[in-house]
Write a structure and sequence with these properties.
mainly beta; 5% helix; two-stranded antiparallel sheet; 73 residues
């Protein structure tokens, strides 16, 4: 199980995830992760989350997100 401060690097997607708040920290109510991506990498494949909400705060650059099958930039 991840702990606050743990870092995971995925060279296939170019993402680095830093855990800020984990389920253990919040009694199962929140998982907060800082995600950075490498320029010109595709990132993760399209996928669906059915049981939680994702929020984004883009600090720099551009991101494309598929919402209901439509790519939004």
């Amino acid at each position: 199980m991840a702990s606050a401060g743990d870092v995971i690097r995925n060279p296939a997607t170019g993402e680095t995830l830093t855990f800020l708040v984990t389920s253990a920290d919040s009694g199962g109510k929140l998982l907060q992760v800082d995600v950075t991506g490498e320029p010109r990498k595709q990132g993760p494949p399209l996928h669906v989350h059915r049981r939680f909400v994702e929020r984004y705060d883009i600090k720099e650059g551009r991101v494309a997100i598929a919402l209901h099958g439509t790519i939004r930039i």
